[in-house]
Amino acid sequence: MTITDLRTVGADTSAVHFARVAGHIGADVSGVDLSRPLDREVADAVVAGLHRHKVIFFRDQHIDHAQQIAFARNFGPVTASHPYDDDAPTDFPEILKIDNREYERKFGVKAASYTNEWHTDVTALVNPPAVSILRAGNTPVRGGDTSWTNLAAAYAGLPESIKELVDGLRAEHRFGGRHPVFKEGSNYGDKVARTPLIAEHPVVRVHPVTGEKILFVQPGFTSRIVGYSRRQSDALLDLLFDEVTNAAYTVRLRWREGTIAVWDNRATAHLAPGDVNHLDVARVLYRTTIEGDIPVGVDGASSVAISGEQFIGS
Ligand SMILES: [Fe+2]
Questions:
Q1: Are the beta carbons of 76 and 84 closer than 8 angstroms?
Q2: Which part of the chain is the TauD/TfdA-like domain (predicted)?
Q3: Which of 46, 218, 223, 285 could share a disulfide with 98, CB 3.0–4.6 Å?
Q4: Mean pLDDT, to the nearest integer, of 45-59?
């Protein structure tokens, strides 16, 4: 493939262009104005580009909460902000404010986001969001970058013998994964204890649009391999997390005002930064999520809820 091919491969239309920014994942999108409703052809191109590139980046898009929600609807029904969050802006219950200064109050620990580990959004739900859209509010002068990894590439890179093993496995997902994050007695600690969300997902899910096999585990939520002893589970999860977080499969974004990132939450994990927690800086981002389907494994078996209901959008 030539360099020209690499720059234009994707779902280009006459209006929309995708320029890859890393080897396995990520593209910059141009030719789209997110402050206006998208034409059908443009919206279809953006959705197709998302499925191909897994995370897409828009720059210099200065939009507000209502415009972000309107843009999000191109990807499907928009959910409420978060199953545990109750301080979305009054007029915009779909908006989750991610503010490093507020998480210490909520969690009882310093954090830039829900977790500073690699994670896929809210896989403690039986139907984790299909897509997440994150818009820059206040961006720090330095630090606070977000990284994403391609979970289809992580699966594809496994040796055949490990693929055969993990194709038939299922794993439990809960907040904090193997290491609960919320301090007992904190705002979130209480909510998680009162209404736990726990789901069992296939370790390898089949993407409903692309048909790709996705290595659907990450340290933020995956707590154990079902049917394995603790030691067996930890050993295998350590190996799989190493693959998922292999830098070769990742892309890293420097936020600035007007930046918007959209990721396929069914095919990626991402890492909130740990490098701003010691700085006296404000890092504010606004997230919306799209209702997800219930994952299906290689054997056709679906995820099940151990505790909690489906998270439905409108
Ligand atoms: Fe996240």
A1: no
A2: 21-273
A3: 285
A4: 98
8 A C-beta contact, residue 231 and residue 6: no
Share above pLDDT 70 across residues of the chain, in percent, rounded to a whole number: 90
Distance 299 CA to ligand 1 centre (A): 28
Read off the pLDDT of each residue in 22-40 and give the average, rounded to a whole number: 97
Q: What count of other Cβ atoms lies within 10 Å of the Cβ of residue 61?
A: 19
What does the alpha-carbon distance between residue 313 and residue 192 come to, in Å, rounded to a whole number? Answer: 21
CATH code of the domain containing 99:
3.60.130.10
Residue 283 lies in a domain: yes
Query: Is the residue at 313 inside a domain?
Result: no
List the domain range (segments joined by +) for residue 179. 3-307
264 closest CA partner among 31, 38, 46, 84: 46
Q: Round to whole Å and give the CA distance between 309 and 314.
A: 16
- Gap from CA of 17 to ligand 1 centroid (Å): 26
Distance 113 CA to ligand 1 centre (A): 7
Residue-wise pLDDT tens digits, 302-314: 999 999 999 999 8
CA of 302 from ligand 1 middle (Å) equals 23
In a domain? residue 312: no
Task: Give residue-wise pLDDT tens across range 148-160.
Answer: 999 999 999 999 9
Query: Cα separation of 260 and 258, whole Å?
Result: 7
Q: Tell how strand 284-290 and strand 96-99 pair up.
A: antiparallel
Domain count, the chain: 1
Residue type, 235: A
Which residues participate in catalysis according to the annotation?
Answer: 119, 121, 270, 287
Flag whether pLDDT at 18 surpasses 60: yes
Helix (H) or strand (E) holding 103: helix 100-107
The tokens for 51 are: 């499925």
The tens digit of pLDDT for each residue in 68-110 reads: 999 999 999 999 988 887 677 779 999 999 887 776 666 666 6
